[in-house]
Amino acid sequence: MLLYTESPLKFAFSREFEIEGLKPAPAFGILGVPFDSTATYIPGARFGPNAIRAASYNLEKYNFSLNKKPANNFYEIGNLEVVHGNFQKTSKYLESTVKELLNNQISPVVLGGEHSISYSILNALNLDNITVLHFDAHMDLRDSYQGDKYSHATVIRRIYDLNPDEIIQIGIRSADEDEVEFAKETGISYYNSNWVKNNLSDIEYLISNIRGSIYVTVDIDVLDPSYAPSVGTPCPGGLNPQELQKLIYCLEGKDVVGFDVVEVTSRCVGDITSMNAAQVVYDFICL
Ligand SMILES: [Mn+2]
Fold this sequence. Notes:
Arginase, Chain A; 9 helices; globular; binds manganese (II) ion
């Protein structure tokens, strides 16, 4: 890289990815997945990865709240070559790419894209003992949606099929009654948005006490639409950015094996949704 030049298409403060120059683990890799073919309400999550990167340039290298700087070992991997309209092929490419990252001891930090992509990441991780920490307005526990098994609306059900140790859903405020029934039958923990807002310290305690490996998936619609209007399926009554931030801080020192922020459909620089999504990624990278 030339002195005083930078790539606008990388996450702020990230390093350019060169296999030969890899630093020792642990390392993170920012991978964009501009896929939105299963979107059913507002499309446009294909614009999410670059919108989040653009928003990251508004961040400062010193994280004032955490009194830390971003981890040195985080790399910009670029965007996955997705096949629009074809989940199966995109999923195959994503799985291979995540496996390649893992072979290089790089944990995936994925910018979506719609939520269906989280399944492919977890499938690539292939871990027996893992807790899935899921921030979302929706349960995403349908067995199929409009005839599709793989969809933004079924992603946590598909992840359940991968047999994780535990699934914890935070911020829920919209679901089909069958999804609630399924969660109760199978022991999936879910915490509704109002309860989370009124009992935040209980959720902080819960996250702080998760043992073992954790995969974190943040559907940015967990935030109230007043803070994140540019999402695939906005739903009023959500968390505010400070509440989400406090919960992300609880991951400090945890064994987080993968992290994603999905469903950002922002289309212009400085859009509030992409700023909040960039903040979530930045805070995680700084922990
Ligand atoms: Mn959602």
